[in-house]
Amino acid sequence: MAYSTILVEKLVEDRVAVITLNRPEVRNAIDFTLRQELYQAVDDMEKDADIGAIVLTGGPKMFAAGSDIAALLKNTAHEQFNRVSLWELIFRMEKCRKPIIAAVAGYALGGGCELAMACDLRVAAESAKFGQPEINIGIIPGGGGLSRLTRLVGISKAKELVFTGKPITAAEAQAIGLINKVVPDEEVLNEAIKMARSIARHSPVALGLAKYVLNNAANMDIHSAESLENACFSLAFASEDQKEGMTAFLEKRKPVYKGK
C-alpha cells in the first residue's frame, strides 16, 4: 500500500517492520491522514506472517511534536467524532498481537508522547524530550495521556506532567518509568531494532497471549487476572508453537515457530 505520511520497511531476515512517521515539514504532527495510515500499517503488519515485532520511529531528529493543531482547529465536533481518532489508533496499537517498540529521538509531545506510550517498549535518544503540554492550549490529553501516563509513572507524577505541561528529559523519563532505555542519539533506531529482533524470534502465539494478559491484568483484581493468565497459559499449551518450542529445547536446537 502506498502511504503519504508514513514509511514502512520490512526487515524480513530480522522479522521486524520499521514504521517511520514522515511529515518532517511539520515535525511529524499527527493529522487525520497519518492516524488513518498508521492504523492501516499496524493492521497490515499484524497480519504479515514474516513480521514478529514492529518498531515505530519518527526519524533521527523528531518523533512527533503532537497533534496537528492547525488541522484540528478546522474540525467540527462532528468531524472529530467520526474520523479515526488518536484514541482509536492507540487502542489498535494496544490490541496488536505483535509487540511494538518506540524509537524516540527529539520531541515526543502531546499526541506524540501518547503514541510512544501506546507502544509496548520505549527506547529514547539522550536528547529526547517527553511531555503532555495540552494544558497550554486550553485542552487536556485525549489519546491516553491521562490513563496510560498514570499507569506508567503513578498518579502524582502524571498530575505534575499534565498540570504543568512542562517536558522532561529522556533521563528523567527513564527514572520515573516512562521509558525503558536511553542510548546515544545515533544509536536509538538500531537499539530499538535490536530489541525488536530479539523479541521477534519467539513464538508469535506466546507473544500475543503474553501481551494480552499484561495489558488487561492491570485493570483486574488479582484473582481475575490470575484466572485470565491461567486460561491463556492453557491456550499456549494447545498451540503447535508450544510443542515445537519444547521439542527444540530437548533436542538442543533453535525452534522454528509457525504462529499456530
How is this structure best described in words?
- With 260 residues, this protein is an alpha/beta fold.
- 47% of the residues lie in helices and 15% in strands.
- The chain contains 12 helices and 9 strands.
- Helix 1 (32-47) links the parallel strand 2 and strand 3 (53-57).
- The relative contact order is 0.12.
- The mean pLDDT is 93.
Show the helix and strand layout.
Blueprint lengths: L5 E6 L4 E6 L10 H16 L5 E5 L11 H6 L2 H6 L3 H10 L4 E5 L2 E3 L1 H8 L2 E5 L3 E3 L15 H7 L1 H10 L3 E2 H6 L5 E3 L4 H13 L3 H14 L4 H16 L2 H11 L10
Parallel strand pairs: 2-3, 3-4, 4-6, 5-7, 6-9
Antiparallel strand pairs: 1-2, 7-8
Task: Give short descriptive properties of this protein.
single chain; 260 residues; alpha/beta; 2-enoyl-CoA Hydratase, Chain A, domain 1; Lyase 2-enoyl-coa Hydratase, Chain  A, domain 2; 2 domains; six-stranded mixed β-sheet; three-stranded mixed β-sheet; 12 helices; 47% helix
